[in-house]
Amino acid sequence: MDEPPSSTILLQFFNTHLSTSDAIGVLLYLLCLCVLIFLSAAFSGSENALFSLNKIQLDGLVENPGARANAIHFLMRYPKKLLATILIANTFVNIAIVLLSTLLFAILFNFQAYPLLGFFIEVVIVTFLIVLFGEVIPKIYSFQNNVKIAQKLAVPLLYTYKLFQPMVYVLESSTNLIDKRITKRGHILSVDELTHAIEITSEKDAPKQEKNILKSVVNFGNTNVKQIMRQRPDIIGVDAELNFKQLMDVIIDSGYSRVPVFEENLDNIKGILFTKDLLPHLNAHENFNWLQLIRPAYFIPESKKIDDLLKEFQTKRMHLAIVADEFGGTSGLVSMEDIMEEIFGEIQDEFDEDEHVYTRINNYTFVFEGKMLINDMCKYMDVTPAVFDEVRNDAETIGGMLLEINSYLPKLGQEIKYKNYTFKIESVDTRKIKRVKVSFEPK
Q1: pLDDT tens-digit readout, 338-365
Q2: Partner of 399 for a Cys bridge, out of 156, 311, 431, 433, CB 3.0 to 4.6 A?
Q3: Does 252 lie in the same domain as 203?
Q4: Is 10 strand, coil or helix?
């Protein structure tokens, strides 16, 4: 035997003997419910609209004097008061919806024989109406039209605040007390939490370039100089034994404003030569003692964090530091520009050559120099450097990491795979990997 549909079951509880006064009451209750659901939607939408305004939108809303601008300025100046007002008003409205719906169900249906069934049906219907029409739809709409909603609801919200001001004061005072207790206990957001928060920010709120800068700032304090320094083979220095003419040839060819001066090799750096100090002596004899112009070099360990180094550069008014390894030898060189590039990306001035540090074939295939830093490779591919932490060990360059993975110098054309990344050797000599094609499959 077929079971009757749920709608038929519900109809059997319907009160078919409604008096005229009951019918009028039902119409009034329905009208009031529509008004209350509209108010619930307005309060929920106003919360999303006002708190999603960015600085440019907010400045545009308050630039023209008037009641609307004054209301928005006040509400956004006191966000806790605004939030408390919305929560209190929305709570009263939702309670009223529940009470009215209970009275409406008591008139329309008779669940005396099955009170639990009546309670369940009423809860499901009322909850569905409040969540769908009072929360979900208005919040989605207001997020996409936040300026329009803010303009329409700012003044009504201000009057609502004045209406519930005593209750707002009590709620705000309570939350302030809780805030103080939480502040005393303290909570420090991890780098991963901050990075995740930046990732889930919509493209509308923050363009990709801004996201990359924010992620660089978040990871700034966890980056050490070894990760961003110019490696020793790429350092251009001058031998202290050079005469003045030879020195000038090296300076002109290098194009740098500061160069390290060494004796015998780069492990024995005597100081830094500023090319501006040579300007008064351009016509000097080739036997001119230019060593008197060098300034003391600033040595730092590989483990120094770049945020600390930036502060030291600012305090000491320096722009260059020599990175020393654990044995006291020269490991690399780091400049103020290297630190800035860690945040803002590659910076090219009018003296830099327009060289291609990498080639992008498509969104998931790139060609890099083997000496490129792993951190830089990850920036260009828009992936986190932590992906390679398991295999990089102490390696800082792509070539060094591949040697760690492969255990020996790979051959031309050889492919090295790690997780969803494939490294194909495109150029190699007897000592190092020179060029690598990197492709990966998005997760």
Answers
A1: 888 776 766 555 445 445 567 888 888 8
A2: 433
A3: no
A4: helix
Shared domain for 161 and 212, answered yes or no, is no
Q: What is the residue type of 315? A: T
Can you give the residue range of the structural domain that contains 198?
191-220
Which pair of structure tokens corresponds to residue 423?
């490294």
Question: Scanning the structure block, which residue is given the tokens 């909850």?
Answer: 127
For the chain, what is the domain count?
A: 4
For the beta sheet containing 258-263, the strands, ordered from the edge strand earlier in sequence to the opposite edge, are 238-239, 258-263, 265-274
The better pLDDT of the pair 434, 210 is held by 434
Sign of CA dihedral 80, 83, 89, 90: negative
User: What whole-number distance in Å separates Cα of residue 352 and Cα of residue 345?
Assistant: 15
- Of 176, 204, 220, which residue constitutes the final position of a domain? 220
| Exposed e or buried b per residue across 231-253, where buried means at least 16 C-beta atoms within 10 angstroms of its C-beta | bbeebebbebebebeebbebbee
Chain centroid to CA 144: 21
105 and 52 share a domain? yes
111-152 tens-digit pLDDT = 776 778 777 878 888 888 888 988 889 988 888 888 888 888
Task: For residues 332 and 420, state if they share a domain.
Answer: no
